From TrEMBL:
PANTHER family: ANKYRIN REPEAT DOMAIN-CONTAINING PROTEIN 39 HOMOLOG-RELATED (PTHR24148), HETEROKARYON INCOMPATIBILITY DOMAIN-CONTAINING PROTEIN (PTHR24148:SF64)
Source species: Coniosporium apollinis (strain CBS 100218)
Name of the protein: Heterokaryon incompatibility domain-containing protein
InterPro entries: HET (IPR010730), HetReg/Transcr_Mod (IPR052895)
Domain Heterokaryon incompatibility: 68-209
Pfam families xref list: HET
Length: 320
């Protein structure tokens, strides 16, 4: 890009870009399309936390002047060749990012307008331990303060598009009765099973990112579905698991295997839906009426900051 002095390091280490205690950094994603380079500007914004007269424990809601979306995603393995350009004055800093984050930003990028996002890998100086500690302590506020939480499950693979469409189909309750009895639907249930096993569902921080969100949407490739609709379908799946097992028992395509789904209670997607429903109740303006921080169980309280654990044994491969 003409007119910029290109640098190979992140601008976050510069003194003028240090965050104060009551500040957060936001990513202003520049418009673009297709294979155009990803470009952004990092901006620092003051964050205020309003108090409510009926709230004995204020501090869970954060307000920033401009509305922003928060990205929830699985970092994924690092691999060379994936970058974003961070523009700072006359300089352009080319910063390496993971392939999964690159795919998420490309999908969320607008063709016409800037998009304001909070993305942990870029909005927190990963080399500054003090900043990391301070900002991680604000993550519950950041996700609750976002206008929208965008969950990136990953690129389209296999039957993921079929699974996302199937979620919408399941919400028609008349159609749902047929779907749990029609053997031809077994392939769609299998696609949903694969979607529920995406790495994002086993991340440590998702309980706060989802349960505290005013509004959340799951994105997989070009497809999207509101979190609320996905959660409703998972609840329906739990209640009708016997009938669905029968579908697989009768399906030659799946070798008449009734346990194709395995133990539903061990799936991260099922545990997340259950936890989000049971731990929080929200008012219409998004305020948390029942807080994890006031839960009598110390382990449950610690989930908000130390990762979630719904079973006595931490699942293998738990991802940050």
């Amino acid at each position: 890009m003409e007119g910029y002095d290109y640098k190979k390091h992140s601008p976050l280490g510069l003194n003028q870009d240090r965050l104060g205690y009551d500040q957060i950094r936001l990513l202003k994603l520049h418009p673009g399309s297709g294979t155009m380079d990803l470009r952004c500007t990092l901006i620092i914004r003051a964050a205020s936390t309003p108090r409510y007269a009926d709230d004995p424990e204020p501090g869970l809601i954060l307000k920033v002047a401009e509305p922003y979306d928060a990205l929830s995603y699985y970092w994924g393995p690092k691999r060379g060749g994936f970058f974003i350009e961070i523009l700072a004055g006359s300089e352009a800093h080319r910063v390496a990012i993971t392939p999964n984050l690159e795919a998420a930003l490309r999908q969320l990028r607008s063709e016409q307008t800037y998009r304001l996002l909070w993305v942990d890998a870029l909005c927190i100086d990963q080399e500054d331990e003090n900043e990391k500690s301070s900002q991680i302590g604000k993550m519950s506020q950041i996700y609750n303060g976002a206008e929208h939480v965008r969950v990136w499950l990953g690129v389209e693979e296999g039957d993921s598009a079929k699974a996302m469409e199937f979620v919408k189909k399941c919400l028609d309750l008349d159609d749902f009765d047929r779907l749990v009895r029609d053997s031809f639907a077994s392939k769609e249930w299998a696609a949903l099973s694969a979607l529920m096993r995406r790495p994002w569902f086993n991340r440590r921080w998702i309980i706060q990112e989802i349960a505290l969100a005013k509004r959340a949407t799951l994105h997989c490739g070009k497809d999207s579905v509101p979190w609320r609709e996905f959660a409703d379908v998972i609840s329906l799946l739990e209640r009708n698991q016997y009938e669905i097992r029968q579908l697989f028992r009768e399906s030659t395509a799946f070798r008449n295997h009734p346990d194709y789904f395995g133990d539903l209670t061990e799936l991260g997607a099922v545990r997340l839906v259950s936890a989000a429903e049971n731990l929080f109740r929200k008012s219409e303006d998004g305020r948390i009426m029942e807080k994890l921080l006031r839960h009598p169980n110390r382990e449950i309280r610690s989930m908000l900051y130390c990762g979630w654990r719904m079973t006595p044994v931490q699942p293998q491969g738990m991802l940050g």
